[in-house]
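Write out the 3D structure for:
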Amino acid sequence: MAAAPPAKVAVVGAGLAGAACSSQLAVQGTSVSLFDMGGRGPGGRTSTRRQSGYQFDHGCQYIQPAQDNRLQDLFKHWQDQGALAEWKGSFGIVDQSNRKYRKEEERALLVGKPSMDSLVQHLAAQQGIQQHWAFKVQRLEQLKDGQWLVHGLQRHPGDDPDDPRTEGPFNAVLLADILTCQGGVGSVDLGLDAAEKLLHPVGKASNKAPCFSLMAALHVGSQEAGIAAASVTGCDSLQWIACDTSKP
């Protein structure tokens, strides 16, 4: 008897959650199609910006070491693969009211190596994952047999028109980006039945808050503060400062 074909799963959102999920599914023999509307490739909130020879992790700054044994094993596996490393340095708190720095106890923080987005790129490159970058998923359609079609636009650089595309069918669709359920630029039409099951609880369970990143480069030879990163207290506009060159 011929072996059953592998299950096919579509994952929408190639941030850390989507890439990690896709990698785990692929390792188990699932055929994964990973979609992301970003034109620069995977990353999501772990994106890295490169400009004029400089590199900035302007989204997620680090990964907190896990307490759960399963996550500890997963992070150790990523470290063994060279995609994750410990960020060592002086971490502390800057009090804006008196402009004093207080060093915290040493703690182990984990970061992608050599950048935060490189961890996601490593996971998304797992064999068994088909990558769909610059693909804006617009609508999901569930067929009578329970399978799913993914409808969207394949975006092109410059002024070239977007191409309508349909991918599938898939046995399941996993939404790995909260924006798909909250409206706005990343929203996806899930269909009436799916929307009633998913949109209400997801929308109620989460809130969005804007966060802005300032990326600055200092001239070679400039005086360094001597710290890797610090939280800022007593300031309404600044919460965190980090030196990217202190990362591994």
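The two ends are 51 Å apart (CA to CA).
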